[in-house]
DNA sequence: CCTCTCCTTTTTGTCGGACATATTCCTGTT
DNA sequence: AACAGGAATATGTCCGACAAAAAGGAGAGG
């Protein structure tokens, strides 16, 4: 139902006093993309509750100082990701969480623009614990020489720069991407794009809280060795412990 | 209450033969949604190859007999799903497959509007074989009385009507949905919601090819019993065989 | 007083045209 | 031939208007 009165004011998280509401588009970004990000992160982070009605298009686009067209295109993006639903006269309303495309890369990114709920991170790691060992198993059976080469270089880069540097984290992503590529399974790879992004965010969290309490390189090496040897069971097991430790680190980091 | 009904009309179910005619929107469907579906399925089914450039907005929207605004909103949907990318002056180009959000429900649906590649189905079932046994295991550990009740009624409905009827298939979906809900993991639920939709399409394929070669009820019962008993290992194993058989059936049906 | 029907009003949906912006690509210069 | 600069072109944004659908209220009838 409709809450009376103060119901749903646009956020315009007022750092500026005056009408600086216009979402300036960052590097090369399109305007409607910026609006979509702004609205999307606002929804995912809970500033709009499921069932809430957004302000009307005309009014909202006015307060944002953008044209209705740009605003509408942004809303279409949110509709495409299952965050909101628009019906004539009823307005645009936030859908319940179970309709959201949580594995959409953008939605995941938006979820990590703010402090994500600990439960959600738990769910994500649980999915990782399901998918990644199985992926490692598949990779062990199907990898070719090129896959191993890419993983090896990524591993070397991880050793050289630690996970504290951005280049080091990029190498970590490369390692996991190469592993998933070796599964020869498009669906699994697509999942990785989502989970991988989330994982990189949680890695940043870990770093932010304190120094990494444990050197993750040996775990990665064990995974690599098992895949190189074509030992599917060992690869799965090694990956399982790797994810376990990552979860443990993240959890302790977030409690602090 | 929310009319869940996406039983909404499949537009232009008949012939798409007519040159490039205006995409008539089925009851309640928005125009840009229809365009997005048309373009999306064309891309996913391969009628546009990755790297191809779409016709310019003005020209294309003219041949479709729609306004540029509607066309643009449709394109934004495709952008949101990673299918295309638009850049000034360069035009709108189809992205490589690894950029697509394959687990997006709409993308999956579009993939099954035409004859999907057998490899893709294989990938999908492989992912199912990874996720669903693990989900059953989680469900066995976390289900409560309500979950079991819902699953039990769904099971009864499946027994009453077979999978040959739509109500029977709906009961099948209910069963799997209840199972996933019992995992208490939003990410797993979201993933399986996508895959589940695709699976229901393959089920229809099976039915179309020939009568279901095997009674699937006992397999479901085994899964239910294991979950009810809280036996995680048995639940995973039962689900594994269930998915295995489903894959086998689908494969033999598609070879015919 | 309640219910049903009809109409008003609100909000999204679609349209058309205009201008802005950013590249690409061609052209002309050095 | 290399480079710089301008014209062409496609997307990006803005504006204003009307169409369509549906929620909510008004009025007739029970």
UniProtKB/TrEMBL annotation, chains A, B:
<dbReference type="GO" id="GO:0003677">
    <property type="term" value="F:DNA binding"/>
</dbReference>
<dbReference type="Pfam" id="PF07729">
    <property type="entry name" value="FCD"/>
</dbReference>
<feature type="domain" description="HTH gntR-type">
    <location>
        <begin position="29"/>
        <end position="97"/>
    </location>
</feature>
<dbReference type="InterPro" id="IPR036390">
    <property type="entry name" value="WH_DNA-bd_sf"/>
</dbReference>
<dbReference type="InterPro" id="IPR011711">
    <property type="entry name" value="GntR_C"/>
</dbReference>
<dbReference type="Pfam" id="PF00392">
    <property type="entry name" value="GntR"/>
</dbReference>
<dbReference type="InterPro" id="IPR008920">
    <property type="entry name" value="TF_FadR/GntR_C"/>
</dbReference>
<dbReference type="InterPro" id="IPR036388">
    <property type="entry name" value="WH-like_DNA-bd_sf"/>
</dbReference>
<keyword id="KW-0804">Transcription</keyword>
<dbReference type="InterPro" id="IPR000524">
    <property type="entry name" value="Tscrpt_reg_HTH_GntR"/>
</dbReference>
<keyword id="KW-0238">DNA-binding</keyword>
<keyword id="KW-0805">Transcription regulation</keyword>
<dbReference type="GO" id="GO:0003700">
    <property type="term" value="F:DNA-binding transcription factor activity"/>
</dbReference>
<feature type="region of interest" description="Disordered">
    <location>
        <begin position="1"/>
        <end position="30"/>
    </location>
</feature>
<protein>
    <submittedName>
        <fullName>DNA-binding FadR family transcriptional regulator</fullName>
    </submittedName>
</protein>
């Amino acid at each position: 139902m409709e809450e009376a009165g103060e119901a749903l004011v646009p956020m315009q998280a007022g750092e500026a006093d005056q009408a600086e509401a216009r979402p300036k588009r960052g590097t090369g970004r399109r305007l409607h993309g910026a609006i979509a990000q702004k609205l999307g992160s606002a929804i995912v982070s809970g500033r709009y509750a499921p069932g809430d009605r957004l302000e009307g298009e005309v009014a909202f686009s006015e307060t944002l100082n953008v044209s209705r067209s740009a605003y509408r295109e942004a809303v279409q993006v949110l509709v495409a990701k299952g965050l909101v639903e628009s019906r004539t006269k009823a307005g645009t309303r936030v859908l319940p969480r179970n309709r959201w495309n949580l594995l959409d890369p953008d939605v995941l990114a938006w979820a990590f623009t703010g402090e994500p709920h600990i439960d959600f991170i738990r769910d994500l790691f649980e999915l990782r614990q399901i998918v990644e060992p199985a992926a490692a198993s598949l990779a062990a059976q199907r990898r070719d020489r090129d896959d191993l080469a890419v993983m090896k270089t990524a591993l070397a880069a991880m050793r050289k720069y630690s996970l504290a540097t951005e280049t080091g984290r990029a190498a970590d992503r490369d390692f996991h991407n190469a592993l998933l590529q070796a599964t020869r399974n498009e669906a699994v790879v697509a999942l990785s794009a989502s989970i991988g992004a989330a994982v990189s965010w949680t890695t940043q969290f870990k770093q932010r809280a304190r120094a990494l309490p444990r050197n993750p390189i040996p775990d990665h090496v064990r995974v690599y060795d098992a895949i190189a040897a074509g030992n599917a069971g060992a690869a799965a097991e090694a990956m399982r412990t790797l994810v376990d430790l990552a979860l443990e680190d993240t959890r302790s980091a977030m409690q602090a």
